[in-house]
């Protein structure tokens, strides 16, 4: 287990940079992590992140298709919000484990 320090706060992460305890997540932490991948989080980003966190708590297996059917964003917008691996990046920013569907 590794530790990531962002904005003076230390959080435990795995080797791929995903939080090991989703309870350590804060919106401020997400903003700091997003800045590292050149994403400035908007309210729409947070709608996606909060939906992902809610589904993770419910034990739902996450996929791009499920998010596209969520009514929050369509798949095209999801790719625009989180370019370069939308589910992988958004999951990391949401403080949840990497979905099994991500390689």
Would you give an account of this structure?
- This protein is mostly helical and 103 residues long.
- It is 46% helix and 10% strand.
- The protein has five helices and two strands, in the order E-E-H-H-H-H-H.
- The chain has helices at 27-36, 43-58, 64-68, 75-81, 86-94; strands at residues 2-6, 9-13.
- Strands 1-2 form a two-stranded antiparallel ribbon.
- The longest helix is centred in the middle third of the chain and has 16 residues, at 43-58.
- The protein is globular.
- The relative contact order is 0.18.
Strand % is: 5-15%
SS elements, strand count: 2
Quote the distance from N terminus to C terminus.
20 Å
Can you count the helices?
Answer: 5
Draw up the topology in text.
Blueprint: E1 2-6, E2 9-13, H1 27-36, H2 43-58, H3 64-68, H4 75-81, H5 86-94
Antiparallel strand pairs: 1-2
Helix pairs in contact: 2-5
Main attributes?
103 residues; mainly alpha; 5 helices; 2 strands; globular
What's this, in brief?
Helix 2 (43-58) packs across helix 5. This protein has helices spanning 27-36, 43-58, 64-68, 75-81, 86-94; strands at residues 2-6, 9-13.
